[in-house]
Hints:
Mean pLDDT: 90
Amino acid sequence: MKDAVIIGGGIAGLGAGLFAQTRGLDFPIYEKGANLACEDNLLWLAPNGLTLIERLGCLSEVQSAGKAQESMIFAARDLKPLMQLKAKGLVSRLGQPILAIRRRELYQILMKRFQAQGGKIHFGQELEAFELRFDHAIVRFKNQQQILAKRVIAADGIGSLSRTQLFPESEVHYQGLRTYLGQSRHPLAANFVGRTLEIWGQGSRFVLTSLDGKTAYWSAIERASEYTPNRAPLPEDLHSRLKKLYQNFHPDILTLLDFIVEGSVHRSNFGVVRGLKSYSKGVVTLIGDAAHGMPPNMGQGASLALEDAHWLVARLAERMEVSSPADEAAIDEWRLKRAKQMMNLANGMNVAFQPRSVWASYIRDCVARLTPDKLSERRMVQLYRLPRQIAAL
Length: 393
C-alpha cells in the first residue's frame, strides 16, 4: 500500500509531488494523458505563487523562461491607462513581482525537476472510480490497474472526475463569458514586453503582453450566453468576428488580429466550481482547479494550486491518517474562505469590468481613473501575500 498518490499531472499535481520530495516523501503521479502536453498559452504567477516556486528551488529557471511584468495596466480602447499596478510596489512589500510564463514551459520545468529527483509519473492512467475505506482508498483506472493508498490527492483539473464521484452535488457553472487565447507575430509586440494590458470595451475585453518582443500573447474575452465546449471546432469566421468585436479598439489591436499565428487560437470558457462545502472526503482531498476552478481574472489559478499543494503535503507529512470528519472540515475551512475570497473578486471583476451598456462602461472608466494606484496596490498586496497558515510551514 502506498502512503499517498496524486491523480493529475498539472501544476497542482506536480506541485504536490515536488513539495512531498522536499519533505523526503515519495508521492507518485497518475496522469490520464499520454504526456503532459498542453496549450501553449500564457499564465501569470502572482507573488504568492512565485514565493512557493522559490521554496521548490525552481525560481531561477522560471524567471529565465518567463518575463516579470513591470506593470499591469487597465486601459481604455485607445490604450490610455485608466489605472495600473506597478511591480515596484509588489516587490518592495512581497519580494516578488507578477510573472508571465508559457504554461508549457512551467509544466516542463516542474516535471523535469520532479523526475530528476526520482519522482514517478505514470502516463495513460485515466481514473475510473474510487472505493473508499476508513483508512485507505482503492483507486481503479480504466486500464484495469488498481492501487491502494492511505491518502489520495485529487488534482485532476476543473473537469475533475474525482470531484464528480466524491461530491455529485457539485458542478462547474458557465458564467456567460468565453475567451479566445491566441498569438500574433508582429513588430508591435515589442511595445508590450514586460507590460500586461487589459483593454476595456463595451461587453468585451482584450488582454495583451509579450515575452520576447516578437510574439504577442492575447486573450479576446466576449460575452456569450450560449455555451460551446472548449474543444469544439472554432468558428470558420472567427477572424472576422474578432475584428468586428474590436473594431472600435486602437488600430494596433486590429493589426495584431491580422497577424495571428496559424493554429495558435483556442477557446476557453469561464467556469466556476459550485456546491462544495469541503475539499476532503475520507482519505481523498481535492486541490487546485479540481477544488476551486475560477475565472482567470486574478491570475491565481496556478498560485492557489501551489498554495493547496504546500498546505496539504505539510499536513500529510505530520499525519497520514484521517482525522474525524469534524476535524477535516475545520482544516478545510480556511482554504474554502481563501478560495471564496479570490472567486468573489474575480466574479466582481467580470461584472464591473465588462458591462454591456454604454453608460455602465463610461462609469466604469470614470471610477477607474479616479481610483488612486496606491489604493489598488494595497488591496492587491493583501490578496497576494501568502496566508500565515502557509507562510509558517
